[in-house]
Write a structure and sequence with these properties.
The protein is α/β, with parallel strands linked by helices. It has three domains: about 5-45 and about 55-250 and about 320-375 and about 490-505, no CATH class; about 255-320, no CATH class; about 395-485, no CATH class. The chain has 23 helices and twelve strands. It has helices at about 30-35, 50-65, 70-80, 80-95, 110-130, 150, 185-195, 205-210, 220-230, 245-260, 260-275, 310, 325-330, 340-345, 350-360, 375-385, 395-405, 410-435, 440-470, 470-485, 490-495, 500-505, 505-525; strands at about 20-25, 95-105, 135-140, 155-160, 160-165, 235-240, 290-295, 300-305, 320, 335-340, 365, 370-375. Strands 6-3-2-10-11 form a five-stranded parallel β-sheet, with helices on both faces. A three-stranded antiparallel β-sheet has the order 8-7-9. Helix 3 packs across helix 10 (about 245-260), helix 8 packs antiparallel against helix 9 and helix 18 runs antiparallel to helix 19.
Length: about 550
């Protein structure tokens, strides 16, 4: 379904100009805040180095765990080309490592944080390689084995006057992994993305969408193919989690996790109790009686009960759940660290006991880089109305504030005076009722106060609504800025599709984003941005 587009909806600029990329602190949940502040209990996270020598030692230790043929075994699952292939080959032949990140499929590549994550991994891989002299390749783990169709079937684009939600209905039963979910005809939605992109200085992202988002593709297949072509020139390899080669490499560990289902479950339960005792809520809830292993033998993806583990022990259609996946990834790839967001940082506190129960190395995590992209036309609106991007977090506050400012000064003054006088007289009335022992309770006079003030507030809201109608052009501008910065109430990075940005600004935007991501990565490699490293330094989060 495509919601109301017209040819005038595109966000065109008369000349090419540069957007502003604003680095942001991650929006953290309480457990992630503790991890980032260095206050999580010891042992919940794998510590990471903070200088060149200790990083070299860690990378050498990781690389020594792997035989030379890991790259050969997983080559079909990467299908890497260009710079992405060159970097993987350099790692495989030069005793190097990888830095990973990942995401489940999103429609047309998903929101901005898909790109933010990929650039974070690239920047950190570059920084670590420069620091240590060891070959490091960035890898994007495409979680096409995920079954969350709702996440994979929608995206948001910004247009003049607001934001538009694009989605499509599932052409096959729910419960299928996205690698098997048919895409169907999304040509109307793709046309909407093209209109939202406007006059593209770099048509490549749109052309890639047209090539891969075809009716005969699956959701996962289109996602992987698109990201591979988009990221390969940057040197970022994309691995398909559902590819037979990935599943074959993961099968021994996944099978072991199933066979040790009771031990793994006990370890998870014990850690969850620790998390709760420390005053936090586990990011991933425990489901008693179920293993951390999925089976897709019936077509859909279902968790295997621990008691039924023996029936599936020799199966080749097994896959990890969200808690087991990082352990699998660390086991099949020489991973220096995973680069993740706030939810991932939170659930990594639950992962160490799983790796311990299975007898494998536990994975490490570092915070990804986060950003807001402020386009020139949005910047002009902010400057004109003296607004900041964070003013748009509240869904209505900006419009009400601007409309109220457009009301005649005398009217506002009288409103404030009336409200003050009303409170003053009601205070006097309440005092008199008490002193004269009037046959009414204090609740009655307070009810009168609330009723009168509510009527006054309603009058003010009507004035503001009239001002909004009178200044519809300004309200339209505000809606345009809101559609870019907080589309449909979501933070830009978590909601807005990144393709129109790349099409409108091309290499200029990529270079600016990468420059910011590299500064973040430089601080991470030296232990100056995250207490998940061995040298705790506070990093403020935003709720």
């Amino acid at each position: 379904m495509v919601l109301g587009f017209t040819p005038d909806d595109s966000l065109c600029e008369s000349e090419v100009s540069t957007p502003r990329v604003l680095s942001e602190p991650l929006s953290l949940n309480p457990l992630a805040v503790a991890a980032m502040a260095g206050t999580a209990p010891p042992g919940w996270y794998e510590p990471l180095p903070h200088d060149a020598q200790s990083w070299r030692e860690r990378l050498q230790s990781i690389r020594s765990e792997f035989s030379g043929d890991w790259r050969t075994k997983l080559s079909p699952a990467f299908a890497a080309t260009g710079k992405a292939k060159e970097r993987l080959d350099a790692v495989a032949s030069g005793q190097g490592v990888v830095v990973t990140t990942g995401q489940q499929p999103g429609l047309f590549g998903g929101p901005v944080y898909t790109l933010s994550k990929a650039l974070s991994a690239l920047a950190f891989a570059d920084s670590l390689q420069e620091l240590t002299g060891v070959p490091v390749a960035p890898v994007f783990w495409a979680a096409t084995d995920d079954t969350d169709f709702r996440e994979s079937s929608s995206t948001i684009v910004s247009v003049h006057g607001g934001a538009q939600l694009l989605r499509f209905d599932h052409p096959a039963p729910l419960g299928l992994p996205m690698s098997a979910m048919p895409l169907g005809d999304v040509s109307a939605q793709l046309e909407a993305v093209k209109r939202a992109a406007g006059s593209a200085i770099d048509p490549t992202p749109i052309e890639l969408l047209e090539r891969f988002y075809t009716p005969d593709a699956t959701v996962g297949e289109a996602y992987v193919s698109f990201l591979r072509e988009l990221f390969a020139p940057l040197g970022i390899a994309v691995i398909d989690a559902s590819h037979p080669a990935t599943r074959a490499a993961a099968n021994p560990l996944v099978t072991k996790a199933l066979e040790l289902g009771s031990e793994v479950a006990d370890a998870v339960t014990a850690r969850n109790h620790e998390i709760e005792s420390a005053g936090f809520t586990p990011q991933v809830q425990d489901v008693p009686g179920l293993s951390l292993v999925f089976s897709s033998s019936s077509g859909s993806r279902k968790r295997i009960p621990i008691k039924a583990a023996g029936k599936h022990a020799s199966s080749d259609d097994l896959g990890p759940n969200v808690l087991l996946r990082p352990v699998v990834e660390r086991a099949i790839l020489p991973t220096a660290t995973y680069i993740g967001g706030p939810a991932e940082i939170a659930y990594f506190a639950q992962i160490g006991p799983i790796a311990g129960a299975i007898g494998v190395a536990r994975p490490a995590i570092l915070p990804r880089w986060s950003c807001t992209i402020i386009e020139p036309h949005v910047e002009r609106i902010l400057e004109k109305l003296y607004l900041l991007p964070e003013d748009f977090r509240d869904p209505h506050e900006v419009e009400a504030r601007i409309a109220r400012a457009k009301l005649p000064k005398a009217v506002i003054e009288e409103l404030n005076a009336t409200r003050a006088a009303l409170n003053e007289r009601l205070d006097a009335l309440s005092e008199a009722a008490v002193e004269e022992r009037a046959p009414v309770s204090g609740a009655v006079t307070e009810g009168l106060r609330a009723n009168l003030l509510r009527r006054l507030d309603r009058f003010e809201r009507r004035l503001i609504a009239a001002a909004k109608r009178e200044h519809a052009d300004i309200m339209h501008e505000i809606a345009t800025a809101r559609g870019s910065l907080y589309p449909l109430g979501k933070q830009q990075e978590r909601g807005l599709n990144f393709v129109p940005f790349l099409a409108r600004y091309g290499a200029i935007l990529r270079q600016e984003m990468l420059a910011e991501a590299r500064e973040h990565a430089r601080r991470l490699t030296l232990g100056r941005a995250s207490p998940i490293l061995e040298q705790p330094v506070s990093l403020q989060g935003r709720s």
